[in-house]
Predict the structure.
Amino acid sequence: MTPLNDLELEMAVLGAVLLEGDCIDEIYFLEPRDFSQQRNEIIFGVMRYLRDRNEPIDLQTLAGHFELRGKTALLMRLGGITYLSQMAGVVATTRNIKRHAQIVRSKAHRRRAIEISKDIVEISSGGEFTIQIVPNPDAEKSKVKEFDNDEDFFAAVEDRVYDLRPQKTSKMRSFAESKKEYFDHLKSKAAKLMTGLFQQFDAWAMLWIGWLYIIAGRPGVGKTVKALLLAYGIAKYNKNAGPVLFYSQEMDENEVKDRMVSAVAEVNYNKLINKGGEFGFTVEEWARIEQAYAELEGLPIFVQDSAGVTIDEIRATARQFIKEYGKISAIIVDYLQIMEIPQRKGENRTQAIGRVTRTAKTMARNMKFVMIMLSQLDRAVDEEEPKLRHLKESGSIEQDADVVEFLYWDGTLKDGLRVIRSIFAKGRNVGLNKFRYLFKWWHQKFIELDKDGDDDGGAANSKRGAAKKGRGAKK
């Protein structure tokens, strides 16, 4: 059986750093927790501390670190100067330090995998499991409660497995230390996605990777239409950006396809949902439908039509897709308030939704994709233009979202169709803005209108709802 630690290699790694302090930069992937002996873990932690402050690393500075902080007794428990000298003595050359460090890390991965496997057994059996990853006899124990559903269980297991991966080693850094990375960042392509369909929006902002993007509105303003158009545009106009995952909680998969095929093929939506109606589809319509489906089939768009999806399920699926495809470009959830959001003890509905939006934002940032969530507005917007306070359970949504877009109809019509106002009420990095769309509901499309003017020649109604009998009232 291969031993799960190699004390001689650990000493060789530490000794190489003592002999040539600068070589620690070659092994910055190594973490203190990767050392199997606690004293080696502490010593490497001090070495990292000295390097982060641009201080030299050698026998004297290492010992001096403990002395200056009144921790000479700790140094003696670690083996004192004698042990530090022994580490330096086992090194013939520093040239192999990177390879040695990689072996130390690989063995650490396996040790942690064994500990996490034990935890998974405890999670599965409903017993106690160790919170900490590194074995520690004094670690706090936590009794696992019964899981409400299988997805919560899967999430708990996946969280433990996720902890197996190396922790980020970045620290607070000065401008001098991060100069190279900053200029590399400026020279690289901006982490944005084009919608491809909304030229004014793309010219102004585009979709930033890591965003939590909220689209909110009352029923009938086209939230789902906008979301599906974004799914199509992201997949079509951002080559190699990764799959788009669309969660539909109110419509089944074929209803989603009806809407997307209608938009791409420009075949009447009502005719699609009625299977062609009394007279069926014409030859030309069939050709457009087949051509549209072929295009959609070639795009990396995936649909799940589950009601009551949980944020843990979304996170698990995202990880699976990243494992298979390397990355994802966007996750779209239709819509936030009908997700399965259990309330913990002492937690109200708003706080529970806050957990979801915070998790969604963290996922987008860490996994590098755009998270788009649809949201409801309260009835107060029937009487006034929407504001951030009108978001249902608004506190956490407003705080966590990077961008909030309201879709709003004030009764304005153009050629008998609704003119939908797109109001960006929050825009991190991009500011605020307003756009206007003509809602061609029969093709499930938004067509951009000129920003100038309030109604662009349409007939505005002072009483909201007065135009609802017109063709623009369709969803």
